[in-house]
Amino acid sequence: MQQDESTGEHIVVVGAGPAGLAVSLGLHRKGVRSVVLESSPALRASGYAITTWKNAFRALDALGVGDKIRKLHLHIQGLRVFSSSTGETAHELDFTAQENGGPHETCRVRRDLLLRAMEEELPPGTIRYSSKIVSIDEDGDAKILHLADGSVLRAKVLIGCDGVNSVVARWLGLAKPSYSGRLATRGLAHYRDGHGFQPEFLQFIGQGFRFGFVPCDETDVYWFYTWCPSQNDMGVEESASKMKQYVLNKLRSSKVPAEAVEVVERSEVSDGSAAPLRFRSPLSLVLADISKGNVCVAGDALHPMTPDLGQGGCSALEDGVVLARLLGEAVLAEEDGMEKERLESALRKYTRLRRWRSIHLVGAAYMVGFVQQSGNPIVSFLREKVLAGVLARSLLKMADYDCGTL
């Protein structure tokens, strides 16, 4: 018989990804207990690595794990963008240069190491694995969560950090994420004796795809490949081996150098998988119920976006810090019998603070991706001669954000 906890009330976070663990760890730092429900049996490392720009490190420092992450990863010094049609350099950007507003702290952080760093700081038992929500009911002000194993939780606050297919976002009535018309595959290449690459982000754009790679540390290199599929691409998603061969064929038929192609070659076949790139329409977020009463969403459950700015994980960490700060203040306020009102007010303030940041990031990511992958001759010419620098600098502009402390 499964345990029934409907008599106790909890702050319940759904999803043990970057947003969910950031919320829970932030609350813990403020002395507030929470419960994290994760549907998987263990922390999920899908996605391989996350770009952590300056805004992400500010959030990680607020959570007390920034230095933990810094010690495990290389610090990226710059970005070089090449034309995959000609092999020529389209733009170079030095992250350390003062004229570019530098130094800009940037790493490509392995997802498993990021999640583990936060998990290790939480009290034992905070994360409940293999805990999948199947339905949400209401009982007065509380939300009653029914789990797949038959257990029940009573939540005084429900925070959905359960990704692009969020159950909580659906309960709130948020618009279903839209397909961008693009697919992405990614992987992690391991060089046992060291890869020898400089700590920089190399990107190749044009010919209908965007390919890039960046070292995480001295031995691991993360790579990605995004493209707009056509009828000629039918069947490439049937297996990881076909997906990998498809990417290699595309790269070898372009002006991508051999050492870049080798990064994909070195990846294990199981690392190759394709996923549709989805986003929530910025227009739908203008009036959407990001929070309703004592329920809200954060991370990809709120603002799924294409990966073209590298801000998905960063903004999730921002959400977590802001939400933990506001909820912590509401819980710890002097007892006056008005906790319900304080909690709902905190979520309304969170909505005001995160709505327009989310709209800006989702919209900008979509437009950057569109320009970078467009096959239109005019757009291609402008991209390689003029827009490459604008697009590169937009990465730094979006990262120049401070979510504040706890």
Characterise the protein shown here:
This protein has 11 helices and 17 strands. With 406 residues, the chain is α/β, with parallel strands linked by helices. The strands form 3 sheets. Strands 1, 2, 7, 8, 9, 10, 16 and 17 form an 8-stranded mixed β-sheet that branches. A 7-stranded mixed β-sheet has the order 5-4-12-13-14-11-15, with helices on both faces. It has a two-stranded antiparallel ribbon with strand order 3-6. The chain is globular, with a radius of gyration of 22 Å. The chain starts with a strand and ends in a 7-residue tail after the last helix. The model has no long low-confidence stretch (mean pLDDT 91).
Would you kindly provide a brief summary of this structure?
This protein has helices at 18-29, 54-63, 66-70, 111-119, 167-172, 240-252, 258-266, 282-286, 312-332, 339-373, 377-399; strands at residues 4-14, 35-37, 49-52, 78-83, 89-94, 107-110, 127-128, 133-139, 142-147, 152-160, 178-190, 200-206, 209-215, 220-227, 274-279, 291-292, 295-297.
- The parts where pLDDT drops under 50 for at least 5 residues are none
* Portion of residues within helices: 25-40%
DSSP strand count: 17
- Main pleated sheet: 8 strands, mixed
Query: From the helix content, strand content and strand pairing, which structural class follows?
Result: alpha/beta
Strand content: 25-35%
Q: What does the oligomeric state look like here?
A: single chain
**For the CA atoms, what is the radius of gyration?**
22 Å
Task: Encode the helix/strand succession as letters.
Answer: EHEEHHEEEHEEEEHEEEEHHEHEEHHH
Number of helices: 11
* Distance between the first and last residues' Cα: 40 Å
- What global shape is seen? globular
Rounded mean pLDDT score: 91
